[in-house]
Amino acid sequence: MNSKQYDVVHYPALVSQESENDSKNLNLEVAMEMSNRGDPKLVSVTKGHPGNTCEENNVGEIDGFHKVHHEELEHENDCPKEEDEESDFDQDLDDHENREEAWAEANAFEKAVLTVQFGCIAGYQFIKKATHGYFLKLVFLAVFAAYFIAAMVHKFGDEGSHRLLGCTLLGLLIWGFPYLEQFVVWMLRKCYGSKRLSERHSVLWGKTKVVIRWLLYIAMTAVMLYFIIEEGRKNRSNLRSLPGIGIFILVALLCSSKPSKVPWQTIFWSVAMQFVCAVIIMKWSFGRDAFMYIQDRFTEFFDNAKAGSKLLFGETYNDHAMAFGAFPLLLFINAAFTVLYYTGAMQFIIRVIGKTLRFVLGVTSVEATTVAVSIFMEGAATIMLLRPFVNKMSKSQLFLLVTACMSSLGGGFVGFMSAFGISLEYLIPAMLISAPATFAISKVMVPETRDIEEEDAEQTYSLMDDEKKKYMNIFDAAQSGALVMLPILITAAVVTYTFFSWVSWINDTLTWFGDRVGIEDLSIELISSYLLYPVALAMGVDLEDCRRVAMLMGYRLGTYNVIAFIKLIEMRGNKFQYLQYMAATNFTGTITKHRDDITLDSWNMTLTNGFISERSEIITIYCLSGFSSCLAAALLTSILATMVPKRKKYINGMAISAVLAGHLSNCMTGCFASLFY
Description:
Blueprint: E1 5-9, H1 12-17, H2 20-36, E2 41-43, H3 45-48, E3 60-62, E4 65-69, H4 70-74, H5 96-105, H6 108-130, H7 135-154, H8 159-192, H9 199-234, H10 242-254, H11 264-283, H12 285-303, H13 305-313, H14 321-343, H15 345-361, H16 365-376, H17 379-385, H18 387-390, H19 395-406, H20 411-420, H21 424-445, H22 457-469, H23 474-516, H24 524-531, H25 533-538, H26 546-558, H27 561-584, E5 591-594, E6 597-600, E7 605-607, H28 614-624, H29 630-643, H30 648-653, H31 655-675
Parallel strand pairs: 1-2
Antiparallel strand pairs: 1-4, 3-4, 5-6, 6-7
Helix pairs in contact: 9-11, 10-21, 10-31, 11-12, 11-21, 12-21, 13-14, 14-20, 14-23, 15-16, 16-19, 16-21, 17-19, 19-21, 19-31, 21-28, 21-31, 24-26, 26-27, 26-28, 28-31, 29-31
């Protein structure tokens, strides 16, 4: 077989001088004749001709030059003709030729039906043209407006009416925000008289920004000191986590690739944003009540997935809660997120968060969007969404991308964890507070070393608008969202099963080796409980719980955070058993402690790994709300390396650093949870 490849040369003149069918045959004959003569320039005008739809004559891009295989061209006549996308039943009746053909073949009754059809089509097109394509949207808005007015008149003042009013206002804001933004920009330019500031005004604005920046530094520092002092007066033990914030930043600085290039302005405002988010969510009663309300609404929404589990697996699906309850919930949630993308709601939320991060932290649009997207989407989905920018990203931006994927859970896994019994009251705030920490740690470890030309912000955000164009309608969006999540669900199930079994085998092996030298019950838990003890202590965890929390962090780093959460839930069950035991014995029951295990003497029951206090549990949830593990690093870097093969060496080399950065980001979040407990 002759595998010689030929360069493609297009001769449009040949195409333009002949009719469609004749030009196809002529071009093919010219190409075959030149091929038989051994001409290195293989003429392939048929590939460029709009009438030639044969997909078997592939043109592959090799080393930047378009080439085509000789043998494929020889079999061009054998290529199957591309069938019409629509069947006879679905042909467009609006097409003039189809109308005439249908009318000529129809009898009297069919002509009457066709008359009605043609009339409806003509009427719809006239209305659509008159409304500039917004006819269906206007109909929907009219129907909803009528329903909204009727609902407000019928009953107003209860929680349901407030929810309807809030959702309606939010929908109007999402729909009208781009127009409002354009109007404000237009007004400012109209008032100023130019799109750009004059040289004199630019200098004045630069000096003003410096003054404003320092005033904001002073004001923010004063606010943080006030709340820290106030918190210390109420509960001094909470201040134990305050040095931990500095310690984790110092660890990142010691691992920095270029300490002299660290953007300390970004670091300061990252920590300040974490502080403000923590105060609003954990100390401000309105913010706390708002998140409790959001938690209740999410819980109501997630409960609808139980109907699907009951349908597929029966009423007893809870006997296998993870396989038949938690895992299918991922499909349901991702379908909902895809619908939100289709409607534009998710784009609005990400735009708001991204622009806020960009304005406050002084980062680029790509970096702000990266962190904003990672709050709501899983790591692999975040990378795929930003794939047009991956080739242009600097080393610092690539590191930030992987770190952002490591330090967040994503919307689907939030529901997954809530199905286990982890409260959304802690999971949702944890993801929001971790977002600024991602910048604080990643920009210290891998700072930007060259000037990055700022890209157009709207061009960056338009990536998310492209997501809407992938789907025909809302049903296609929901179905596609669920199917896209299927490989991730299978991966999560396989990894959980494999690593849980693997950990059991490793523990048995370590125990055997430990017995040989007189060390009892040597295991991963025991080793990690000592290695990561200082980390738990720096987060302000209660001293008696530090080894157990360190053990959970070891599970997350070495294997998968799902396994760490499973162990945490087991500890919660142990605590429930302990309280039942003490209540049954009127708080006179005796217990025996052996390392981390607790034995209930009267019941002869051993609580493996014991339990931790409520405070330590909350800090742990905040700390574990991220995917910073060796497994996640392998998956994410492999995806990135496939997309950018020329930078594979750097991407694979930063895997362990990204795990450390993601873990430090989550630990900083744990510090704030401890500070404002």
